[in-house]
Write a sequence for this structure.
């Protein structure tokens, strides 16, 4: 756009542009080129969007199947990361999440290979969950508590086995059935079932 008539707005604009530093003009041209490329490639955005939708659909199908599997057995629930998270959230409403936290701490403890770390971890778990009046004391009998205390003197990856088994049984017999009957899990199964029905109707 050019104009040599005195007082023309285009002339003023051109003079203003020439006063700008060269780097600013180069950046503006570069930006214009990039925008042009994006505007002329709408299929790029379509491909990305389609790919994301396919991945999301796959994840939803997997999670729906997982949610329904949780009611098959307590083991099935504990195998699922999202199942453990959902169960933990439920236990918080009953103020008994320390049972699951202890079970998870024991699972992590068993993977410890260093003898030094094994001993320090064992003491930390015992002080937090097992000893009488512990900050997050789990509900186990006195005999199991004493057996676990003695095991600490020669800490091995199996020193919490009995206490962990008792806590697991308690959750399976007591908290797990209530979790399956809870409103939150019922809502999740309804959503999972409806997604399954929707999927079948579209195939």
């Amino acid at each position: 756009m050019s104009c040599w008539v005195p007082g023309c707005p285009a002339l003023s604009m051109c003079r203003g542009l020439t006063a700008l530093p060269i780097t600013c003009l180069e950046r503006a041209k570069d930006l214009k080129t990039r925008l042009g490329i994006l505007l002329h490639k709408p299929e790029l955005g379509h491909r990305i969007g389609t790919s994301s939708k396919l991945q999301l659909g796959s994840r939803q199908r997997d999670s729906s199947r997982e949610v329904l599997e949780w009611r098959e057995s307590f083991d099935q629930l504990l195998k699922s990361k999202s199942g453990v998270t959902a169960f933990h959230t439920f236990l918080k409403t009953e103020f008994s999440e320390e049972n699951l936290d202890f079970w998870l701490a024991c699972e992590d403890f068993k993977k410890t290979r260093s003898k030094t770390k094994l001993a320090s971890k064992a003491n930390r778990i015992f002080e937090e969950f097992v000893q009488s009046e512990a900050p997050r004391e789990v509900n186990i009998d006195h005999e199991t508590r004493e057996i676990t205390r003695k095991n600490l003197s020669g800490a091995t990856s199996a020193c919490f086995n009995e206490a962990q088994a008792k806590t697991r049984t308690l959750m399976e017999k007591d908290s797990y059935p209530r979790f399956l009957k809870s409103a939150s899990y019922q809502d999740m199964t309804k959503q999972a079932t409806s997604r399954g029905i929707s999927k079948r109707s579209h195939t």
Q: What stands out?
A: DSSP finds ten helices and no strands in the chain. The CA atoms of residues 147 and 154 lie 12 Å apart. The longest helix spans residues 42-69.
